[in-house]
Each structure stands twice: as structure tokens, then as C-alpha cells.
Amino acid sequence: MQADIERDPLANTMTVNIGPSHPATHGTFRFLCELDGETIIKCLPEIGYLHRAFEKSAEKGTYTEVIPYTDRLNYCSAMMNNVGYCQAVEEFFEFELPERCVFIRMIVSEMSRIMDHLVCIGACAIDLGALTNFWYFFQTREEFYDLIEELCGARLTTTYTRVGGVMADLPDGWIEQLSKLLKTKFPKVMGEVDGLLTKNRIFKDRTIGVGSISAEDAVNWGFTGPCLRAAGVSHDLRKSNPYMYYDRFEFDVPVGEQGDTYDRYLVRMEEMRQSARLLEQLIAALPGGPVNADDPRVVLPPKDQVYGSIEGTIKQFELIIKGIEPPVGEVYSATEAANGELGFYIVSDGTGHPYRVRVRPPCFPIMSAVPHMVEGQMVADMVATLSSINIIAGELER
Questions:
Q1: What's the CATH architecture for 71-92+96-294+364-396?
Q2: What's the CA gap between 153 and 149, in Å, rounded?
Q3: How far is CA 63 from the centre of its chain?
Q4: Where are the beta strands (DSSP E) in the chain?
């Protein structure tokens, strides 16, 4: 249904479209705004221009074939989607992942969090006219992408995680490269952007008090992630409902006060530092061993068995053609993705295809609250607000 705004014909206002084809909207969605001069009187968001049909497409493939689709939810941090989905499927089974596999998943997740925040802050700065920061952060992001490419052969859409493990172990020298990046280039670029933006008078004027939301309103709207923490709510699933091995390591959860664009910037900056802190601990404690579970229900047999025995050949064939077959039931599993709680609700009918898959994307409730955050402010403030909440259209219109 097409969005529309009821206007008073005698009012001295005008109605304009911001999006769906507009650089400031960062994706294919539309805001129908009633303006009094440059002040937004009413804002009506409309999505549906990039519907990916992820949830219906997931019902057509095997559980493994769904993994590439998860890359396309939040393509700025694809590996976190892989990890979250595979963790949900694994809850149907009773097996333990090898420690090294869990460490690797945590490493790629925290790398993805950093890469996602680099995009968000760089894009927000460029929307406000601060181009230099964009180049600084995107250069560092490319350094992380080089590591991702070496790990799995892809950069943006990775499909690295597998149900019961990961695609492959870390290449030789990969950990050393990551450690060097975290100790040299990453702190340097963080210091450069911090010096350019954090106390910059123009940047503060454009962000302080802009797009504010209270802690109570953020909770009521269903906010999670950096946008919720910027409003003053210290909620992070890695702390409140620990998964993988997050309860073994030390890291802080940054919290803001005003819930405005400036606080969202500060929270993401500190989250990147905390992710780097986590990565250094993970690197130091990384164990050896296998990277896939020893469970023939979900993991393909070794190639020597596939080529050397009829049993291995049959098992490979069954897992590829029929797919993984979880027991009948349903699960909901959530992870702390870069933008907040990313949840997968999966219903199994016992076959190799999911009966139903539903995604709880962090972007959806945040997008719903945009009118609450921008009405009464200027059009230019709306641009800053949209950049700071980091709406990803592929995840929003799943």
C-alpha cells in the first residue's frame, strides 16, 4: 500500500519525497515528509523497494543452501549473519563445536563488527561533508577485507560458516597479519578520525541533540544494539545472554546519555576499540584442533572417505542432495550483531528444508521509530540521523 500524508489544504506546507533513490537514504526506502520550510512536520517511512524474500527463499533450499542468503541481509558484516544462522540450526542438535571453531567464529564476528562500524561512521561523516574520514576508515576496512578474502576467497558475501563448523581453517600467517593490523594501522586510523571529529565544532553542532531518543522510548520501540546503548541502556547479548565464549573474555559495553547522533557516533567508536580488545585476547588464547564437529548428521565426511569407501560416498550424497535433517521442532537463537539483536526463528518438520524461517532484523524497529526521532527537526538533521542509525536495506526488507 502506498504511503500518503493527510494535509490541511490551508496549511502553508509542502510534501516531498526523500528517497527511494537518494544518496542520503543509504538504500531503497522512501520517506514522505511534510515540511514547513525546512522543518519536518510529519514523516512517513515506506519500505518495500528492495524486498529480498529471504524468508520464503529459505524454505526452498536445504539448511546449507540458506547460508549464502544470510550474507545478503547485512552485507556490511556478512559473517555475523552466517554465524547467527548456523548457531540457530545447531540448536536442533546435541553436539559441541570444537573450541577452535568457536574462537574462529568469534574472531570473524568481531572483525565484522569493526568493519560495519567503519562503514557507518565513514558514511555518516561524508553525509555531513567530512570526506577525509571516509577515506581513512575505508582504507582500514579494505585491510580487514584483504584478510577476509584470504580466509574464504570472497570479500563482501562470504558464506564462510557451516552448520557444525566453518568452511576452512585459518591460513598460515593469517593470525599474525591480523595481530599486526590491530597493533599498527587500526589504532592509528582510530586516533586520526577521533582527532578530526570528536571535538570538531562543526561535527558536534550537526550531531548533538539531533535525532535524540530517550531510554524509555528506545526500549518501547524495540531498539537494540548501539542505538539502544547510545540512549543509556546497557544491554548487549554478549553480556546479558552470553553465547559462544564471550563470558570468558573482558570487554566493556559503552553507553551514551542523550541517545542522539553524537552519542551513537561515540558508542560505535568505543565498540570498535572493545572489539579490537576482544580480538587481541582471542588471538592470544586461540587453541589448536579441528574446526568442524565430529558429527556425520551435519558435517560432510573427509574426502578420503568420500573417494575411498561406499559409506563415505553415500553420506556425502545424502547431505548434499537431501540436506541436513534436524529433528521436528522450533528454535529461536539471537546474536549481538553490529546493529543489534539479530534473531533467527526456525521451524523444522524433520526434512532437509526449513519449514519456516523468520528473521528478527535489528534495523526494523529502529526504522519504525524514525518519525519519532526526526519530526520537529530540520531536513539536514534527518540526513544525519539516518546515517547514525545505520539502516541496511537488505536486512530491513528481508
A1: Orthogonal Bundle (1.10)
A2: 5
A3: 21
A4: 14-18, 30-36, 39-46, 161-162, 165-166, 329-337, 340-348, 356-360
Distance, in Å, from the CA atom of 266 to the CA atom of 291, rounded to the nearest integer, reads 36
What cell was used for 130?
567530512
pLDDT tens-digit map of 317-375: 999 999 999 999 999 999 999 999 999 999 999 999 999 999 999 999 999 999 999 99
Alpha carbons 389 and 376: distance in angstroms, whole number: 18
Phi, psi of 357, deg, nearest 5: -135, 130
- In 3D, which of 193, 92, 215, 216 has the Cα closest to residue 133? 193
Place of cell 577515506: 135
Angle at alpha carbon of residue 100, lines to 95 and 108, rounded to 5°: 105
What is the side-by-side order of every strand in the sheet holding 356-360? 329-337, 340-348, 356-360
Task: Using alpha carbons only, give the angle 391, 370, 33 rounded to the nearest 5 degrees.
Answer: 110
Q: Find, among 66, 110, 111, the residue nearest to 85 by Cα.
A: 66
How do residues 214-226 score in pLDDT, each as one tens digit?
999 999 999 999 9
